[in-house]
Specification:
It is built from four helices and seven strands; from the N terminus they run H-E-H-E-H-E-E-H-E-E-E. It is an alpha/beta fold and about 170 residues long. A seven-stranded mixed β-sheet has the order 2-1-3-4-5-6-7, sandwiched between helices. About 35% of the residues are buried. Mean pLDDT is about 80; it is low at about 1-40.
């Protein structure tokens, strides 16, 4: 139990240091995919599947990178197939889908929620922010068109069980 607390504090310090110094920010783009390059760090890699034409998905990838997560992003033509394969119910879907250490991350889930998920390791399939709520990470630029609204992060299981993981 003590190592979990130590791990939490180390992760927290890394996130805060990266946020305050901006040292993990990398705004250059790769020529081949147009996706921002990844920044190596101590956090686990996040594999992101996204449609090529969705700017808010690219913004979410950048948000993850700016907060220390290395990201491997792939443009996908058939996002529905990816979501079905990973067990994301229709009612939980958003534009992009990610996987980190075996957990599915659907939509604009915050770094804080992802870190908490990785620390607590609940017996769930993943987390989802259904739709594209205004003000969620990656959706900030849309606030002039989509007003901010409080939203829930939903934990879900393969069997269909759901509960509110966090509220924002």
């Amino acid at each position: 139990m003590k190592w979990i607390r130590v791990s939490f504090y180390i992760t927290f310090v890394i996130l805060i240091a990266g946020f305050l110094t901006g040292c993990t920010k990398n705004s250059s783009e790769t020529a081949a995919s147009g996706l921002p390059e990844t920044a190596a760090g101590d956090l686990p890699e996040v594999v992101v599947y996204l449609p090529a034409t969705c700017q808010c998905c690219y913004d979410w990838v950048t948000y993850l990178q700016e907060n220390g997560f290395p990201v491997s992003a792939t443009n996908e033509k058939d996002m529905a197939a990816i979501k079905t394969k990973l067990g994301v119910d229709l009612s939980l879907r958003s534009n992009h889908t990610a996987v980190v250490e075996g957990y599915v991350i659907e939509g604009h889930v915050s770094v804080e929620d992802i870190v908490r998920l990785l620390q607590e390791r609940p017996a769930i399939t993943g987390l989802a922010v259904p739709g594209m709520p205004g003000g969620t990470p990656g959706m900030e630029r849309m606030l002039s068109k989509i007003p901010y609204a409080p939203y829930d992060v939903i934990a879900f299981t393969e069997s269909g069980r759901r509960y509110t993981f966090s509220q924002h």
